[in-house]
Amino acid sequence: MNRLRRLTLSLALAITLAPFISAGAGRPLGSGAPTQVQAQVSPGGRKRPEARQIRTTILFFNDLHGHLMPFRIQKGDGTQVEVGGVAGIATLVKEIRAENARKGIRTVLLMAGDVLQGTPMSTVFQGRPDIEVFNALGVDAMTVGNHEFDFGLDNFLRLKKMARFPIISSNVVWKRGRSLMNRPSATFPLGQGINLTVIGATTQELLVTTAPGNVEKVDVLDSVQTVSKGYRKARRHGPVLLLSHSKFQTDSEIAKANPGLTAIIGGHDQILFDPAKYAAGVPVFQAFEKGRFLGRLDIVVNPRTGRAAIEKWAYIPITAEIRQDPEIARLLEAYNAQLSATFKEVVGESLVFLDGERGRIRYEETNLGNFVSDIMRQHTGSDLALLNAGSLRASLDKGPVTIEDIFKVMPYPNEILVARLTGAELLEALVRSVRGSREDEDGGFLHVSGITMRIRGHSVTEVKVGGNPIDPARTYTVTLTDFMHAGGDGYKVFTGKPATNTRLPLRELLVDTIRKQGRVTAKVDGRMFREQQP
């Protein structure tokens, strides 16, 4: 059986087809971006009888992070283009659904987690417009991301109640084991006695990437075990998909335990898996981030065996050329109008591009990390300041700076405090900071002020505070956020250390500093030097 499956997947990889056309969308799928289209045949090379096949289309996106409206990105040549926007996604979804309905094909729309955080709209309204848009869009199921609890457990429960679709996860539970989600999976009848089952799974990083108080009543179980349990029950009734907000490594472990999964639709890496990745023969898809792509899988199912094959797949880029769905656009404009004019206030001007790009700020020194950590230390007069990279969610463009821009850079309302730690404890924290690779995009990577060091692999050397070698026995004053002091991002070394809370949100300090300075400039000055690995 496994050998036949591997043969099927090998044949699929060997077949290359021309990009296919969505009659509903009226454009080539994946137009404007590399697109891979694949076909599969049944074991033995026999074509399934067309009349007996069941077809279904899976549409998906992930890691929206509050980006409901279109936004601009800078291309490599320095020009800017508009991308994303849920109103554009809605247009495509409605067109594809209408076309499939004429053919008797069911369309299922899935969201792979991390709805919250990243824009003023999401932050101010704490996810309400996001869920309202998903209701209007007709999302069929969503899995829980690690940022869904960022505004607290009670807020998450309100959003879950507000949703007219199941929010699923097989491994997020109350501390005493009771189910916290609507259910671990969602089931969609496809006809002829066949069901499509979608099982949810969530990264265990949920417990360390949000403030500990938000998840103190929550536990995250081993997803390999919980998905395997659900898969064994569901596989008798038809194809099974995994809707996962975990990194590819975790998805791979789940696939090894359940090689009969039809596909994995993932999130959390925030990467465009184009071409699709494979884990234990199971194709894994992920549609980048912030609503910039809509993923599509076209699946055929043999009703006699319940076995499914992916006939075609593609990612559709969401660009300014796609018509905005009027219903979604009106809904978003109503929320946008409620945002205070304060967000449009220009508080200063940046003379440089402040780099908060995820692939760099989570692995290396950047001028944005230096700028914010310097502000923290200067405000409190402490010996040094430490700031986790995951708290900085966007870059700040050169030119006028509005409060809205600052909210995008720093959506979290974290307060700064001054803690007292020994040099030995600081060294422990610095080693934790550099444990990840560039590919890990570790939000716990620290930006620093008042301290210099060399990074060698997963260790630190030549650490100096105020120009002097760090003394493991000495006690230092350290400015950090309440999130980190509570053990966020796995920094247990900070938990319970004596500290004075300023009660000042770091975001407000950033606004006030830029307003006072008027003009902003910052640079990379070598406070963290990462040695090249042999």
Key terms:
single chain; 534 residues; alpha/beta; Purple Acid Phosphatase, chain A, domain 2; 5'-nucleotidase,  domain 2; 2 domains; 6-stranded mixed beta sheet; globular; disordered N terminus
Structural notes for this entry:
- With 534 residues, this protein is α/β, with parallel strands linked by helices.
- The protein has two domains: 2-43 and 53-336, 4-Layer Sandwich (Purple Acid Phosphatase, chain A, domain 2); 341-530, Alpha-Beta Complex (5'-nucleotidase,  domain 2), CATH 3.90.780.
- It is built from 15 helices and 30 strands.
- It has a six-stranded mixed beta sheet, with helices on one face. The chain has a six-stranded mixed beta sheet with strand order 10-11-13-14-16-15.
- β25 and β26 (468-469) form a beta hairpin.
- α4 packs antiparallel against α9 and α7 packs across α8 (248-257).
- The chain is globular and about 75 Å long.
- It starts with a helix and ends with a strand.
